[in-house]
From TrEMBL:
Subcellular localization(s) per the UniProt record: Mitochondrion inner membrane
Protein's UniProt name: Solute carrier family 25 member 51
GO cellular component: mitochondrial inner membrane
Solcar repeat feature ranges: 24-104, 112-198, 207-294
Topology of this chain in the membrane: Multi-pass membrane protein
Family, per entry: Belongs to the mitochondrial carrier (TC 2.A.29) family.
Keyword line: Membrane, Mitochondrion, Mitochondrion inner membrane, Repeat, Transmembrane, Transmembrane helix, Transport
Length: 303
């Protein structure tokens, strides 16, 4: 059934506030967030795998690349399905819930400080993303070479974890993910538009896509670098199976001691991380605006 562009731009009523006006769910933010994450994962997954090996084993990028090269092309996209399912849903929730909550707060509490609304919306979207921890958990196991022969694929890993260790095992690393997503969303949404405004106004589509790419890339790389040690600890917490759960402080203490009590070694792989994040969040931000323009006729900076 054909859908007109005017129909597509309509938002979905969510609830009716006391003043009788409609609060609208920003469905276009959910849809375009999903699409932009899909494009990004297909392009950047191999880079992410190199970074993961550095996080886990504390090796340099050349060693990690040679490791993956020796395993062969058949294993290059092994572990891609969990992030494809997780990241597309996560970015959809990130953009959708943040903008829906921000719109609600702007409408119902116009006199509230901007920073308060930004923080509340960021925490709400980050908490919703953290529900998807099981996908990150399985991705971690599938990307570790020690589990290449133990878990055949995503479904098998989920099944084995539940059968052998219970549902709770899916949620290892939940706390660092919650912290990373909530505070990270506040940084991302609070900075991307101000950074975009630093670029000279551009009338062409390519120019506007470039400025959206660069603002998303810069803020994404900055945020990802700030939270890199949190991701390192999260990876250490999630790579175990059947052992007692580590708290975030226990995980940090363990990996800090393993890396010779060196802060610098906690950042092994960070250059691959910010390069991947620069490309990844640039793609997500630019394609999100482009998809809104193409399918909903309302990109914030593309007209």
């Amino acid at each position: 059934m054909a859908i007109s562009s005017s129909d597509m731009t309509k938002s979905i009523p969510h609830k009716l506030p006391p003043d009788g006006t409609d609060h609208m769910v920003k469905v276009e933010e959910f849809v375009c967030g999903w699409g932009s994450a899909f494009i990004n994962i297909i392009i950047t997954f191999p880079i992410n795998k190199v970074m993961f090996r550095q996080m886990l084993h504390g090796v340099n990028s050349q060693h990690a690349f040679r490791q993956i090269h020796r395993e062969g092309m058949q294993f290059l996209y092994r572990g891609c399905l969990p992030p494809l399912l997780q990241k597309t849903t996560s970015v959809s929730l990130m953009f959708g819930i943040f903008n829906t909550n921000k719109s609600y707060l702007d409408h119902n509490f116009p006199n509230t400080f901007y920073i308060t609304k930004l923080c509340l919306s960021g925490v709400a979207s980050g908490a919703s993303e953290a529900i998807l921890t099981p996908f990150e958990r399985v991705q971690t196991l599938l990307q570790d070479k020690h589990y290449n022969s133990k878990y055949r694929n995503t479904y098998h890993a989920f099944q084995e974890l539940r059968t052998n260790f219970g549902i709770k095992e899916y949620f290892r690393g939940f706390t660092p993910i919650l912290i990373r997503n909530s505070i990270g969303n506040i940084f991302f949404f609070g900075l991307k538009d101000p950074v975009n405004d630093l670029f000279p106004p551009m009338e062409s589509l390519s120019g506007k896509l470039f400025s959206n790419f660069m603002s998303g890339a810069f803020v994404g790389a900055l945020t990802s670098t700030i939270f890199y040690p949190v991701n390192v600890v999260k990876t250490k917490m999630q790579v175990c199976c059947g052992t007692p759960f580590l708290s975030i402080t226990e995980g940090f203490r363990l990996i800090f001691n393993e890396r010779g009590r060196s802060i610098r070694r906690l950042y092994l792989g960070v250059h691959v991380n910010y390069s991947r994040a620069f490309l990844s969040w640039g793609i997500i931000n630019a394609s999100n605006e482009l998809l809104k323009k193409m399918f909903f006729n309302e990109g914030n900076n593309i007209s």
